[in-house]
Amino acid sequence: MSISLLLYGLVAICATAMVITRTAAVHALLYMVVALLALACVFDTLGAPFAALLEVIVYAGAIMVLFVFVVMMLNIGSPAEQREKSWLSGGIWVVPSLLALGLLVTLLIGLRSGAVPAIVQGAAPIGPREVGLALYGPYILTVELSSFLLLAGLVSAFHIGRRIGGAGIAPLHPDGVHVGVNEHRGVDR
Amino acid sequence: MDSFSFLPNAVLVLCAGSLVQMAAIAIRRNVAQDAVLGLVVLLASLAVILAPTALVLTGTLPLFAPDAWASYTAALVILSAIAIHIMSWRNSVLSDTSVGSEYYLLLTLATLGGVVMSSAIHDVSFFIGLEILSLAMFGLIAFRNARIDAGEAAMKYLVLSGLSSAMLLMGFALTFAETGSLRFLAPVATNAPEPLLASMGVILVLTGMFFKLSAVPFHLWLADVLEGTSIPVAALVAVLSKIGLFAAMVRYFSSINLYVSGPQVDEIVAVAVLSMIGGNLLAVAQTNIKRMLAGSSIAHIGYLLVAFLSPGPFSFASAAFYLAAYAIATLGIFAIIAGVMPQGSYISDWYGMFRRKPVAAFAMSVMLLSLAGIPPSVGFFAKFYIVAAGISAHRVILLLVLIAGSTISLFYYLRLILVMILPRPSDSEAHRQMPPITTPWVGNRALIALLAVATILLGVFPSRLVQSGRQLLDVPPPPGPSASP
Amino acid sequence: MNPNDPGAALAIAVVLFVLGLLGVMVRRNLLFMLISVEIMLNAAGLAFIAAGTRYHMADGQVMFLMILAYAAAEAAVGLAIVLRMHAAGRATLDADTGNRLKG
Amino acid sequence: MTALLPLVILCPLAVSIILLLSRGAMPARATCGLVALGMGLCAAIAVTEAVTFLTGPASTGALHVVLWNWMHVGGFGAQFALTLDRLSLVMMLVVSVVGFLILLYACAYMIDDPDIARFFTYMTLFVASMELLVLSSDLLGVYVGWEGVGVCSYLLVGFWYHERPNALAARKAFVVTRIGDALFLVGLLLLATGVGRLDIGSVLAIAPMAPRPAIALGCFLILGGAAAKSAMVPLQTWLPDAMAGPTPVSALIHAATMVTAGVYLIARLHAMFLLVPGIMFLCAVIGFITLLLAAGAAMVQTDIKRVLAYSTMSQLGYMYLALGCGAWQAAIFHLVTHAIFKALLFMGAGSIILRVHHEQDIFRMGGLRKSMPVVFYAFLAGAAALAGLPLISAGYFSKEMILTSAYNVAPLFWLGGVFGAFLTSIYIFRCVFITFWGHERTHPHGRTTIVEFVPLVILAVLAIVAGWVQTPEVIAPMHLFSTLLAPVFGPLPEEHGGGMLLLIGSIVPIIGVSIAWALYKPRHKAPVPLETPWTRTLRADWGFDALYDVLFVKPYFALARLNRGDAVIGFFGAVAWVTRTGGAMFAHMQSGQVRRYAGWIAAGTVLALCLAV
Amino acid sequence: MFALPALIALPFLGGLAAWLVGLRNGSARLPWLVSLLTLLLEALLLLGVTGMTGGSGWRGHFAMPWIPLFGIDFRLDMDGLSLVMLWLNLAIAVPVLLTSSREIKERPGLYHFLTLATIAGINGVFLSTDLFLFFFFWELMLLPMFGVLLIWGGEHRARATLKFFIFTQGSGLLMLLSILALVFVHVQETGQLTFNYFALAGTGAMSRAAFPIMLGFLIAFAVKLPIVPFHAWAPEVYAEAPNGGTILLAGILGKTGAFGLIRFVFELFPAASAQIAPVVMAFAVVGILYCGWLAVAQDDMKRLVAYSSLSHLGYVVLGIFSGTRVGMEGAVVMMVAHGLSTSAIFLITGFIEERTGTRDMRRLGGLWPAMPQLSAFAMFFACALLGLPGIGDFVGEFLTLLATWHVNHVMAFFAAAGSVLSSIYALTWMLRVFYGPPVFAGEAPLGRPVAGVMWTLGAATVLLLVIGFFPQPLLDLSAPAAPQQIVSLAGGAR
């Protein structure tokens, strides 16, 4: 079981590494789906089948699909890939890698020195039932409030997306300085 | 679990209100009607804060604290929201009937997020409040459809906010892994020798908080966002979100002994120093008034952190007072900009304002002096209060930095006043036409007048506010009712 | 290694988290940034679940749900912004160039 | 009678104030009348006071008039009080009488000047200050007069302010003497600290009990102040330039009174100086050097007033020599005779200058003997007194008195003094011969008025006969002057080698005059000034002026000019620059690139985590 | 009872009235009259107050609670020192307002208001004996000054104002820090939270933290005075301010720093200030020489006078830090005399600027024949600058030097050498402006003298002479009362 956990984890890590290094968006998204599926397996191994399911359904199923839609809408072609390749070359990796490495090392040190975990031996997995009880028991307020979170996201996304069709973007002044009149026009329409 | 939780009245009212607002939009779009509705909701939520009773739900986790600190900061958040609401009205950006209604809805939601945060005593409620606010802010920041800047600002904020939220969550997760509790900072209570993992978690949490507070070096987004978005939203970013977050931060650390130098305290000290110096230096270099205010805002967060780091008889009271002073002055400035010269984003646009709009210029000067901490404005007493707190906690080095920072800040505050007094130089920037000057609508005028009068009156007679503040906050806010984790 | 030891899972979470962070720092394409942020959020969720397992508490999964909700909402809003910026003339989704807000 | 004493100061002061308030509206003649009246009154009161004092009961002691309490703080007190004793009596008489005569002369001299009111405002103010200086019983009061005369000197040197050189000379005169004043002031601080008050009587009473180094320092500082006022080396450079003022000013201030204030001061404090022989010796050396240097410089001057100026310095050198040798009576005696004959010389020169179109170069004069006989004889009398022609001049007796005392201290001093006298007789008669003999090179115009004549004649007579009040034992047992001052200075000490010295002292001036005649007797060719590098240096005050210019004046102004913007302000400017640069740096951090921002966030977090680890 | 607060309120209200009156009809006459009336009333009030005598050196007292939670009172006390400073303030105010009508053409009402508000603030500084209140007034008196500087200042006023603002406010914050530190030390020792000057006096004297606390006060006052390394704002501000503002700044505003040094640094921390006294005195001596030296190089008349003013303030500092009674009283006399003489000189330079249109001495010269009376006054005040005995400045200079000599001979020597430098710059000023061939030729092209200016100068002359010859009443009056003298009274009041 521990082997499988590590295996799944390794898959997830490799897939994620592929995600952030791909030049083509679609490839990256596919690797992302792989990573998410691997993670779902990790969840399941950890005894969280409900979370694993949600991971597959919501993350891989909904969110990633949303990304794919957008990629399709934007129609990013091969010139974009070339550009991505050029962006990813050279010294651009150095500083971020160092920072990431620093973060990784420190966090891993923290993990190693963590207090001995209070492991509940042989416990049953925390299934949907337990989660449901928790959600609609002690966390009922949280659930209610998260609906407002979603509402805020909804309204925001709706509002931002709403104007795409219209010609609501004011042209830029050649020198990049906004002219007040333009703004007025853009607004008053 | 036979635990129980309070549900702050304001949260309830704001939730219900936002639903009503949404329904109203769905039924019939009318900006004026929706705006009034939003204002009513905000006022109602303000009114219920003062109500002595609070809803108590049994069988739930304790998510909210019903204490004075929560009421005070919630009231501050709602009052800020009301001010933002008032200055938004007749804003040229929002006068578009097709989208204006959502603006007020988002404002209500943002207020909800702020209020939730300010009374949160649990990681979950804090996270939810934070994200309600963030999501509402994405929409609000991007609200200036007419300009690409708004989109860019929203994008930057979104990516970085996501990053910092992830950090925050990682931090929560690590502390949870270490302590098994999602209550605010149970680790300190449970584990006597501070475990490394938990303290790392706290540091990650701090990253998330500092990002939202825009403390150096997590501040870089603020200036861009303020510049990119519309003025009322800038006020929201600079004031409302910070009040909520600072309130939560105070509560999050209320059980840590801030006297003892640990990694977290060291980090906060370092960040406070950097913010006071960096924010002011940043503001000095700016020519854009909103970016300048961003720098100023960063610096003020630094000052607040000094109060935060000075446990003692004055700590929270001084922070509370400072929050109010900062909110009054900053909101006042944004209200004036919004009312008088919504497009006057460059400092040089404000030349000769004392001749063109003497009252507004005077009010602006009062606000700037308050931010600079010069009597007889309330900012002076606030700074005095903070320095008193710092002195009583022997934070001498921090205070020296505070003074250095304040001295730098004088430069840019005064420069703006100076620009308003001086006539426009004939040679420079002659090619650029001045943005038009408008007359603020009566509500905004009343708002400006109220804030200006409050700035001076509270500066001269701070006694009452201090008194009530001290009564409210005599004891530091507890992490919550004494329920077992 | 104890199979129920969530330490390994936490380590995986940390690695994923760092990879996500690296992605945000390295990529210039907005879309990849959003994906990287999703990775980070996901890693945080994994950490919660792992921690929840350690104490055998459902709280970790509840937290994961909240994260999920936020990730979904954020992705939606983020993608909306991406679309809008694209429509506004940012053909390349490059977050570096064409910045008008700086200094 | 004590009530009258303040009037000596008050009369000229009142005149000054009236003239000031008149704002020049008064007619010139009325102004002159007022001045004559005021100064006459002053002189008359002074004489009356002197007579009453000498005949009165306290004639050997001192008479104190306390005017008012000036300040009294902590342990320190100072009063405005006047003291009349025999020394101040002599000084008062010199100032009042000579002053009266010179002002009378000035009435004629300045009558055509439109600014005559201003002139007399300053002049009378000067007299008042000088009277205060000599009468004050408190050293701080002396300092008031001391500075007052300094300012008046400044004002009068720069009286014709239209010309920049005059103004420059005035500033120079004041600043150089101010250096001495500062020393004097420090000396006062020292005394005030030690004594608690600056009352001369108390100071002198306590001085013997004070630690010697302190007294030495105090005496040194006061000597410094006196030396600057009296244009002694090394602070002598201002006096020749100060001749830029109207000639009566030179007569009154830069010959008769102000420059001798230092002599008076040291004589006044002689009891203290006696305690420190080293300072006395220094004083003598200063006088000795000055008398030789100035005499040398006077040899080659071409400007008649500068000749007289250097002669003044030289004569003051004699006085300092006398002071240094402890010959107080001799110094004061020479002071009095010098006041008479030098005032006479200056007024004579003034009359000449007035009539030859303000020409001051003696080589452009000549032959004035016939056209201005009265002036000629008066000038001759003065010159004789200056040269110390035996028996027929006042200067002879006083100078001999000094030389005799000097011989008793150090024969070298005597030798130098005699050499100085030799030079003196040469240069003054060079001046006389060139000016009054030979061809007329500038024709005088106008007439010398009676108002000018009267003071000239009176002083000429005095210059001839005044010396007889005090003669060497060898000639006549006449000791009026030393007897007069005996209560102050004690009896005259026993002197040795009187006869021989006297003989040499009497012959040397005659030789000098003869040499002058040989050199400058009337010839066909007009005399021209000697032009060699040496004479040029000598003429320019031995190069002192140039040296000081290079050493002090130029660097002072040039460096100040260089630092005009103030380096300290520059420092704060640098701080501001650093701030701005820092601001720019922080602004630069905001590159607008999201991933950079993310990088900063990560960096902050990593650093904090490292803190934890 | 209410005389002391009235002293502060009256100018403020009068100024407000002047402003309002000026708003109603734009003429300059009415505000002028109103402020004149205000000054008259103030003078009467002050006259009444002068009669007040209390035991123990404190002559008047007023107290009411303000922010009781912090132990902050609205507390005013007056001793002889404050009385002298109040009179000086009034004396300086007269020419400032009297001559305003000539210079201030634009918005005269506002000018009168700002000036009078400054004066009110200064009065507050001189009277307050609650440290918070003191700080409040300390900052408050500057605000209107900034307005004066900004609205009516010269060409580079923006820069100058910024400098002034940053220097004074920055150092003020340092003082705030010190005040609070002192208060908290007091709290730790007695458990009583109070800003009362008298209560804190004991703490200040005793505490081991006295030295750093004192330093904060010292720096704030040193900036305001200013003492030399902190003087960087002064020349520019003096030069750029309108003449009324310059007079106010040099004449009285700077003196608040000296007042603070006496009242707060020296009386609160006698031991600590005695400890640092040699250093401060050394700076003062350096300042005397340095500024005296730089004054000579200036081309701008006002800058020259500014530097001379800085040089003279060195004597004040010397006197105060000599730690002797002689020095203290000498410093007070110096302040008064310097206030009068510097104001008069700035009045003169202002008048010259008004008439000739320039302050640049390279373009001036030979003014004496054109304006003989003014020149005569200039001569007199130049003499005051160079410390001519018989003029008030000398008394102060001498007493401070005397006190310095007590402490350190070398310093006294160099300080006395400053009188040589002062004579150089004062006479250089005369030389470059009034002497020499006339640059502005003609009979009287510069117009007739103005009676108001001349009378003011005459009054200043008379006052300086009176101080110079009869300083004793001033000396007797100006001795600061020790805070310990009122401890019992304070206990009773609280």
From TrEMBL, chain A:
Alphabetized UniProt keyword annotations: Cell membrane, Membrane, NAD, Quinone, Translocase, Transmembrane, Transmembrane helix
Highest taxon in the source lineage: Bacteria
Reactions catalysed: a quinone + NADH + 5 H(+)(in) = a quinol + NAD(+) + 4 H(+)(out)
Location relative to the cell: Cell membrane
Broadest EC class assigned to this enzyme: translocase
Pfam families with a match to the protein in the record: Oxidored_q3
One GO location term (cellular component): plasma membrane
Statement: the UniProt record of this protein carries the keyword Transcription regulation: no
EC number(s) given by UniProt: 7.1.1.-
Cross-referenced InterPro entries: NADH_UbQ/plastoQ_OxRdtase_su6, Nuo/plastoQ_OxRdtase_6_NuoJ
Molecular function via GO: NADH dehydrogenase (ubiquinone) activity; quinone binding
Transmembrane parts of this sequence: 6-21, 28-50, 56-76, 88-111, 131-155
Principal location class: membrane
Membrane topology listed for this record: Multi-pass membrane protein
Task of the protein: NDH-1 shuttles electrons from NADH, via FMN and iron-sulfur (Fe-S) centers, to quinones in the respiratory chain. Couples the redox reaction to proton translocation (for every two electrons transferred, four hydrogen ions are translocated across the cytoplasmic membrane), and thus conserves the redox energy in a proton gradient.
Similarity section: Belongs to the complex I subunit 6 family.
Oligomeric and partner information: Composed of 13 different subunits. Subunits NuoA, H, J, K, L, M, N constitute the membrane sector of the complex.
Protein name per UniProt: NADH-quinone oxidoreductase subunit J
Organism of origin: Acidomonas methanolica NBRC 104435
UniProtKB/TrEMBL annotation, chain B:
Keywords: Cell membrane, Membrane, NAD, Quinone, Translocase, Transmembrane, Transmembrane helix, Transport, Ubiquinone
Keyword Amino-acid biosynthesis attached: no
Taxonomy, superkingdom: Bacteria
Gene Ontology terms: cellular component: endomembrane system; plasma membrane
GO biological process, one term: ATP synthesis coupled electron transport
Enzyme Commission number, as recorded: 7.1.1.-
Reactions it catalyzes: a quinone + NADH + 5 H(+)(in) = a quinol + NAD(+) + 4 H(+)(out)
Primary enzyme class: translocase
Record-level Gene Ontology MF annotations: NADH dehydrogenase (quinone) (non-electrogenic) activity; NADH dehydrogenase (ubiquinone) activity; quinone binding
Domain NADH:quinone oxidoreductase/Mrp antiporter transmembrane: 124-408
Cell location: Cell membrane; Endomembrane system; Membrane
Recorded topology in the membrane: Multi-pass membrane protein
TM ranges: 6-27, 36-57, 69-89, 101-120, 126-145, 157-177, 197-221, 233-253, 268-285, 292-310, 316-338, 359-385, 397-422, 442-461
Main localization category: membrane
UniProt record similarity statement: Belongs to the complex I subunit 2 family.
Function: NDH-1 shuttles electrons from NADH, via FMN and iron-sulfur (Fe-S) centers, to quinones in the respiratory chain. The immediate electron acceptor for the enzyme in this species is believed to be ubiquinone. Couples the redox reaction to proton translocation (for every two electrons transferred, four hydrogen ions are translocated across the cytoplasmic membrane), and thus conserves the redox energy in a proton gradient.
Quaternary structure (record): NDH-1 is composed of 14 different subunits. Subunits NuoA, H, J, K, L, M, N constitute the membrane sector of the complex.
Stated name of the protein: NADH-quinone oxidoreductase subunit N
From TrEMBL, chain C:
Membrane-related topology note: Multi-pass membrane protein
Keywords: Cell membrane, Membrane, NAD, Quinone, Translocase, Transmembrane, Transmembrane helix, Transport, Ubiquinone
GO molecular function: NADH dehydrogenase (quinone) (non-electrogenic) activity; quinone binding
One Pfam family per UniProt: Oxidored_q2
Entry EC no(s): 7.1.1.-
Segments passing through the bilayer: 6-24, 31-51, 63-83
Name of the top EC class for this enzyme: translocase
PANTHER family the UniProt entry points to: NADH-UBIQUINONE OXIDOREDUCTASE CHAIN 4L, NADH-UBIQUINONE OXIDOREDUCTASE SUBUNIT ND4L
Similarity section: Belongs to the complex I subunit 4L family.
Matching HAMAP family: NDH1_NuoK
Name of the protein described by the UniProt record: NADH-quinone oxidoreductase subunit K
Gene field: nuoK
From TrEMBL, chain D:
Keyword rRNA-binding applies: no
Record keywords, A-Z: Membrane, Transmembrane, Transmembrane helix
Coiled-coil positions: none
Annotated NADH-Ubiquinone oxidoreductase (complex I) chain 5 N-terminal domain residues: 70-120
Residues spanning the membrane: 34-54, 87-107, 119-137, 143-161, 173-195, 215-235, 247-267, 273-295, 307-329, 335-354, 374-392, 412-437, 449-468, 499-520, 567-587
GO cellular component, one term: endomembrane system
Keyword Transmembrane helix found: yes
An annotated Gene Ontology molecular function: NADH dehydrogenase (ubiquinone) activity
Domain NADH:quinone oxidoreductase/Mrp antiporter transmembrane: 136-424
Main subcellular location of this protein, as a coarse class: membrane
Subcellular location: Endomembrane system; Membrane
GO BP term, example: electron transport coupled proton transport
UniProt-recorded name of the protein: NADH-quinone oxidoreductase subunit L
Record Gene3D superfamilies: 1.20.5.2700
Species name: Acidomonas methanolica NBRC 104435
Family annotation (InterPro entries): NADHpl_OxRdtase_5_subgr (IPR018393), ND/Mrp_TM (IPR001750), NU5C-like (IPR003945), Proton_antipo_N (IPR001516)
Membrane topology: Multi-pass membrane protein
